[in-house]
Write a structure and sequence with these properties.
- The termini are close together.
- Helix 1 packs antiparallel against helix 4.
- With 102 residues, the chain is mostly helical.
- The protein has one domain.
Length: 102
């Protein structure tokens, strides 16, 4: 009988975790959209995703980490990683719930 209660508890936790992970993925995707919209259009549009950059001998290329565009670029990369991890976790909840309960 205690196994059935544990199984119901696990099902409830996984169900709530699914909603939290999906909400976090949507929030991160929204942050990615906003960060890309605020970046300058001086370079190729895929640079923030691929990490490519065009190095110039200027003050901003030497201190690239302190510019607003570089900060937005980092936010885009980290939020993209969060979205990828959240989607994998979301589909793992389907695998957990599809296994037969005890």
């Amino acid at each position: 009988m205690s196994f059935l209660l544990l199984s119901d508890f696990v099902v409830n936790v996984v169900t709530y975790t699914r909603y939290i992970v999906l909400g976090l993925a949507f929030l991160s995707a929204l942050i990615i959209i906003i960060a890309i919209l605020f970046q300058n259009n001086s370079s190729n549009g895929a640079d923030s995703i691929t990490g490519a950059s065009y190095m110039q001998d200027s003050y901003y290329s030497k201190h690239k980490g302190s510019t607003i565009d570089e900060k937005l670029n980092k936010v885009t990369k980290w939020c993209g990683l969060v979205v990828a991890v959240c989607i994998v976790l979301y589909y793992l909840t389907f695998i957990i719930l599809s296994t037969p309960s005890v």
